[in-house]
Amino acid sequence: MKILVTGGAGFIGTNFVYYMVNKGHEVVVLDKLTYAGGKDNLEPLGDKVKLIVADVCNRDAVKDAVKGMDWVVHFAAESHVTRSESDPELFYRSNVEGTKVMIEESIAANVKKFLHISTDEVYGSTDGALFKESDKLPGDSQASSAYAKSKSLADDLAQNFAKKGAPILITRTTNNFGPWQYPEKALPRWVTNLLLGEKIPVWGEGKQVRDWLFAPDNAKAIEFVLENGKLGEVYNVAANNKPEITNKMVAKILCKSLDKDPNEWIDYIPDPRPDHDFRYAIDTTKLESLGWKPNRDPENQFPETVKWYQDNQEWWKKRKAEAESIYKK
Ligand SMILES: NC(=O)c1ccc[n+]([C@@H]2O[C@H](COP(=O)([O-])OP(=O)(O)OC[C@H]3O[C@@H](n4cnc5c(N)ncnc54)[C@H](O)[C@@H]3O)[C@@H](O)[C@H]2O)c1
């Protein structure tokens, strides 16, 4: 297949690009290379991947890029909740307007399948009940942050185009972790702090729950949806970790992976966003009914991720100072 991957130089996009290139697909990445996009992520793939540096809002560049593509997988987005609070306009532009341009030009170019990457954050926080795909229809929104609101609008757009018959698939995914995640996000921030001999700041009591999904498993789930999903449908993708994994548990696992005593290395700090979503949880029955199974293995996947950051210090050291600067504002 000829696949255009937007945001393919970012965290999940890079994991997906490696997976699909290794499967023998012809992959082209369209990425603006914001602070979160790394040309160096893709360099080891050499000429197995082509990189187009462009904004998804740039209609002419998008028109050219989608020509002749079988599939478009649309990851490109501003993705960090903390940054979204200080620059919501940028999030609206890239995440909502960019999605509109991507879908319109993909339809005009007769792309066979357009997969929009959405998030569990469009459902909002839950007190424990699992959200089903039908719990967020166009116009519904429990999304709380400026990031989640922009993703919710982008999700609405994709659903509306799908209703009009466009060949669209949507995945709503839980928190990913794994290689190539920019160290502004909690897990790589914590690991890299520990590797630098610094404590890890856990917000509040660390009781927040995220259904941590290993990014390489998400790549497989996306491939599965592309191959088996019904056009026009939305699919939740989650690890379904049981028991639930709290942030405090993640912090402890990371400490243990590096032989550090959690009592000494975890710093519980006042939650800078006390009203932020406490728990996300989604139901994956719809995707499982097509034959997909989550491949959760947190005992091995968290240490494997820690090892990646140990082995790739040059990669994250270039990014660490900028990533930390946003917490000092
Ligand atoms: N990280 C998660 O846990 C998670 C969970 C659910 C859904 N998602 C969604 O998955 C997608 C990828 O997330 P990520 O964590 O890999 O993000 P990321 O921030 O690591 O990467 C985003 C990529 O998009 C590119 N980009 C940003 N704005 C662009 C624009 N206007 N034009 C072209 N490229 C642009 C960046 O350069 C970067 O390479 C996003 O749509 C995000 O909402 C992420």
Structure description:
The protein has 329 residues and is α/β, with parallel strands linked by helices. The protein has helices at 11-22, 39-42, 59-66, 81-86, 88-108, 146-163, 186-195, 215-228, 247-257, 262-265, 285-288, 298-311, 313-325, and strands spanning 2-6, 26-31, 49-53, 71-74, 113-119, 168-173, 176-177, 200-203, 213-214, 234-237, 266-269. The protein has a seven-stranded parallel beta sheet, with helices on both faces. Strand 1, helix 1 and strand 2 form a beta-alpha-beta unit. Helix 3 (59-66) packs across helix 5 (88-108), helix 5 (88-108) packs parallel to helix 6 (146-163) and helix 9 packs across helix 12 (298-311). Residues 6-7, 9-13, 31-34, 36-37, 55-57, 75-79, 94, 98, 117, 119, 151, 173, 175-176, 182 line the site of nicotinamide-adenine-dinucleotide.
In short:
The chain has 329 residues and is α/β, with parallel strands linked by helices.
Give the helices and strands, then pairings.
Blueprint: E1 2-6, H1 11-22, E2 26-31, H2 39-42, E3 49-53, H3 59-66, E4 71-74, H4 81-86, H5 88-108, E5 113-119, H6 146-163, E6 168-173, E7 176-177, H7 186-195, E8 200-203, E9 213-214, H8 215-228, E10 234-237, H9 247-257, H10 262-265, E11 266-269, H11 285-288, H12 298-311, H13 313-325
Parallel strand pairs: 1-2, 1-4, 2-3, 4-5, 5-6, 6-10, 7-9, 8-11
Helix pairs in contact: 1-8, 3-5, 5-6, 7-9, 9-12
